[in-house]
Amino acid sequence: MELDEKDRQLVKLLQEDCKKTTKEYADNLQLSKTAVYERIRRLERTGVITNYVALVDKEKVERDFTVLCHIKLVQHTKENVLRFEREILKLAEVSECFHVSGDYDYILKVSVKNMKNYREFMVTKLTAINNIGSTQSSFSIREVKNSPSVYI
Amino acid sequence: MELDEKDRQLVKLLQEDCKKTTKEYADNLQLSKTAVYERIRRLERTGVITNYVALVDKEKVERDFTVLCHIKLVQHTKENVLRFEREILKLAEVSECFHVSGDYDYILKVSVKNMKNYREFMVTKLTAINNIGSTQSSFSIREVKNSPSVYI
DNA sequence: AATAATTATAGATTTTTATTCTATTTTTGA
DNA sequence: TCAAAAATAGAATAAAAATCTATAATTATT
């Protein structure tokens, strides 16, 4: 799907706030309500917009202890990798997990309440997964930026 | 603010999909429309829910080349740190930036189109920031999980 | 370049949902 | 135990989404 300038502006607005009225986006983009309505439907239909979600203040729900956990596997057989990834998907504390090149195999973003809970997570959940060679935890001292949006 | 079980379930639902009707959440939680409506307003008012956003398919908008970039600063004076963070905030390609403990000072999540664009980003934007000592780029081979939501 | 076909847009209408209101129930605290 | 406060349900109203019809703009075709 080709995005024109109006589409890009619209996606930008929807990534900032998806709960405005069609009329508000329309006024902002100098289009009619129907035009914006149809454009949004098209963005949804073609899969550019995948879903709409509420964002939560991690501090308010006591999950603002964030750790970037670097993991090396012992063995890199297909079965081991798939099992590892399947197990990671089950862990609610892990909001992001990337298989990466470089010094480590995986980088995880983990959000828990405090160090005690992180230790618990490590001991009872993470290292319970077979085939983990070593881990290196980088504790977040400060969140400079943390947004799910993508510039377009 | 204290969250009861209904609140937690509601936040979970809203983090998955914030565009359902009040009635749908009400049916799911076995509450009336008004009860759910008031609970949502309270979650917003107390700052548990910060905002509502559209999520975009990075592949569809050609920003699915993801890199976790580890940065060491040369000097850690207050001014240097603040200037570095101020400059990072300006870079649209950086969706996340954490000041961390451990081997590196900062970990960034960068989303661009391809390696060529990443190189451009590094050369013209990132290393243009003063005070960067060294960088280590971990290229995402596969996104196992990538969600902005928090378990509660 | 002219015209047909397609697509996008605007404005009006209808339908659905959010919001407000009032009464009732439940919970909390003295 | 009772009064006050908070939460809930259901009804009424207001607002927005969704649809429809007509028009304008764009694209493709000859």
Automatic annotation (TrEMBL), chains A, B:
InterPro entries: ArsR-like_HTH, AsnC-type_HTH_dom, Dimeric_a/b-barrel, Tscrpt_reg_AsnC-like, Tscrpt_reg_AsnC/Lrp_C, WH-like_DNA-bd_sf, WH_DNA-bd_sf. Residues 3-66 form the HTH asnC-type domain. One of its GO terms (cellular component) is cytosol. The keyword Ribosomal protein does not apply. GO terms for biological process: regulation of DNA-templated transcription; response to amino acid. Pfam families: AsnC_trans_reg (PF01037), HTH_AsnC-type (PF13404). It comes from Flagellimonas aquimarina. GO terms for molecular function: sequence-specific DNA binding. Keywords: DNA-binding, Transcription, Transcription regulation. This is AsnC family transcriptional regulator.
